[in-house]
Amino acid sequence: MILVANGTPVLVGRMMGERLDSPVDLGMTLADGNRLFGPSKTWRGFLSAILVTTLVGMIGGHSPDIGLAVGLMSMIGDLISSFVKRRLSLNPSEMFTGMDQIPESLLPALALKTVLDLSWLDVVCVVGLFVLLNRLLSIALFKLNIRSHPH
Length: 151
Prior knowledge:
The chain has helices at residues 2-16, 43-59, 64-87, 102-111, 120-143. By secondary structure, the chain is an all-alpha fold. The protein has one domain (2-143).
């Protein structure tokens, strides 16, 4: 489900173009001169990731709360990584291995650790597997001209 949450904004953005792409940060710039999150973090992507992840979770036999939690926490993790990248003056969508994947996989795993009875090893495996699969999926989406560059 974390891969679904991560990939949905890219696919929905590709399908919708610039429609409904209002930035989450509403264009806010901080004292460092950089945007809070950047133009690529949109309400369309944030909300579509949560909705689609909830639906996919339900199709997979989970309660809506599980899919909702995965989608929401993954998107919050994505915003955290964008915030950090802006503070480091990295360009929106610029690759930063680890920072691009760890928060958006770690937060949902931690949020659901007790509910899903995950061990600490399970959490580490979820994050590690997500980092690997995210990289492979990003390359595939780039080769299919869905992403402008791989992560």
